[in-house]
Amino acid sequence: xxxxxxxxxxxxxxEGATVAFNCTYSNSASQSFFWYRQDCRKEPKxxxxxxxxxxxxxxxxxxxxxxxxxxxxxxRDSKLSDSATYLCVVKGEGSYIPTFGRGTSLIVHP
Amino acid sequence: xxxxxxxxxxxxxxxxxxxxxxxxxxxNHEYMSWYRQDPGMGLRLIHYSVGAGITDQGEVPNGYNxxxxxxxxxxxxxxxxxxxxxxxxFCASSYRGQGANEKLFFGSGTQLSVL
Lengths: 110, 115
Known about the structure:
- The structure holds 2 protein chains of 2 kinds.
- By secondary structure, chain A is mostly beta strands.
- Chain A has strands spanning 4-6, 11-14, 19-25, 30-38, 45-50, 55-57, 60-65, 70-75, 84-92, 99-100, 104-109.
- In chain A, strand 6 and strand 7 form a beta hairpin.
- Chain B has strands at residues 4-7, 10-13, 19-25, 31-38, 42-51, 54-57, 64-66, 76-78, 87-94, 105-106, 110-114.
- The interface between A and B is medium-sized, with 21 and 26 residues.
């Protein structure tokens, strides 16, 4: 079983829709959680960190459920420019090495 | 701010040739790493380093060598290129720390084709 699992999608949604992605992780000792965004043929870039109490950045909301070992990303009012692959990333305490999920593809259409 | 500089952007090799992918960062990051990304496989860690003079293997190290003689540079060497090494390669670096300091900075990638 892969350490970090994501539904690869694609999620195909119209502009203005709300879409949510989940990511599950297997290591209960994981301490740090992130969502990265990767555009086609580009490098991944940090979208947001995920905090225990949940956090919001504009139209994006991230949540962490330690008991069930998953994190989620909610995107409200989807824009065409949100089309990308969203990577779930998990790190253990004191570890340098992040573990990446394979990514979830989002396509927002007019 | 240059961030992470990765060269070349594109490279075509013949089977058996060797080459070095360059990676340099100007942020004084302790951690540097190399990933390859193949369709449907996600990012896979090749080698990483937690400081000058320290390197270690990742998930898919075979066929690659690295060295870290300075904090800034972390080159990746393909010793004898094989078609299975056709991929997109990313270099990434970060501070050691918690929270915002854990952010990974990526280079812009190298598209490598081995014929």
